[in-house]
Amino acid sequence: MEYILMFIAAVFVNNVVLAQFLGICPFLGVSKKMDTAVGMGLAVVFVLTVATVFTYLMQKFLLDPLGLGFMQTVSYILVIAALVQLVEIILKKASPALHQALGVFLPLISTNCCILGVAILVIQKEFNLLQSIVYAVSTAIGFALALVIFAGIREQLEMTRIPNGMKGIPIALITAGLLAMAFMGFSGIV
After folding, report:
1. Which of 1, 55, 96, 125 is the most buried (most CB within 10 A)?
2. What separation, in Å, do the N-terminal and C-terminal C-alpha atoms of the chain show?
3. Whole-prediction pTM value?
4. Residues 6+ positions from 111 with CB-CB distance below 8 Å
5. Is 155 exposed, middle or buried (0-12, 13-18, 19+ CB in 10 A)?
6. What's the rounded mean pLDDT across residues 172-177?
């Protein structure tokens, strides 16, 4: 039951992008088209999950025993950057169209504060490995869900008449705020 509550809380209540404001750059940048949003969401799910496992194991079996806790951020960034390079190579071979569509945003996953934030949060919250994996997967799913919903709304906004002063980023920010308020409705669940 603990893991189900953790999943629901991370996906809906404490959504990493809508409640904690981590990962805003790719959230706003990749959400113009649904296919790129889905691709970015899947890439974040993979990278976030694998990065959390690697950084957790590195923290527990390398940094903590050697007294190198002060190297946490630097070492996490290196692990995340290496994983993003791996995802980029795989996407380039498996789906060149998706790789092209993601463009500059794929390397931005390595600087996505959502991934680094979750890796640090699981250590700060003193989760065990299984809790860390559940938290990472559910946080990534929450990020992907918010991204896909936001992309769908932005595609609909492209076909809507909007005042000139509100076109582009202003209406996107207002929409993101409304989406965040909608997700706040889930706060009574957990």
Report:
1. 55
2. 12
3. 0.87
4. 25
5. middle
6. 91
